[in-house]
Amino acid sequence: MPWLVALALLVVPIVEIFVIIQIGQVIGGWPTVGLLFVESALGAWIIKREGRRAWNALQSALQTGKMPGRELSDAALVLVGGTLLLTPGFVTDIFGFFFVLPFTRPLARRGMHAFLGRRVATQFGGANLGGFIPGAGPAQPPRQSQGDVIQGEVIDPDKHHPPTQ
């Protein structure tokens, strides 16, 4: 996986420069710069709006005691998408808008859950993590004990017998 990140750090800027040059040849240099500026400004506005929505949804889920799986996923996608949108270039902006826009984010969320579900499952030897990772499969009920059950009572010695002086 680290080699994939290193490869992306080398390839993405080259692809971005190529695409910017191609667009600049079609519409001109200054219009290309203006388009990049407008995309960045629009992206910043959308990030602010969607980031606030994601934060409010996360706070609401935590206040109601609900597990904030979807809200955390949305916050992560807005963070990554915002980073991509603020990076100059057309290719990163396409992916940034895909992660940030409210009507495409559910698709990105499903893809992220599928990727993370596979990744975590392989890291933990195929363990069933359906109860912990949304989209990782159905959660299985806990196994019943096969041994004898011995009923008893736990007594805290500090509570019942104060220390002697």
- Biggest β-sheet description: none
Strand-and-helix sequence, N→C? HHHHHH
Task: State the end-to-end distance.
Answer: 61 Å
Specify the number of helices: 6
What percentage of amino acids are in beta strands?
under 5%
Give the % helix.
Answer: 55-70%
User: Which stretches are poorly predicted, pLDDT < 50 over at least 5 residues?
Assistant: none
Draw up the topology in text.
Layout (H helix, E strand, L loop, with lengths): L1 H26 L1 H36 L4 H18 L3 H11 L4 H19 L33 H4 L5
How would you describe this protein?
With 165 residues, the protein is mainly α. Helix content is 69%, strand content 0%. It has 6 helices and no strands. The chain has helices at 2-27, 29-64, 69-86, 90-100, 105-123, 157-160.
In short:
With 165 residues, the protein is an all-alpha fold.
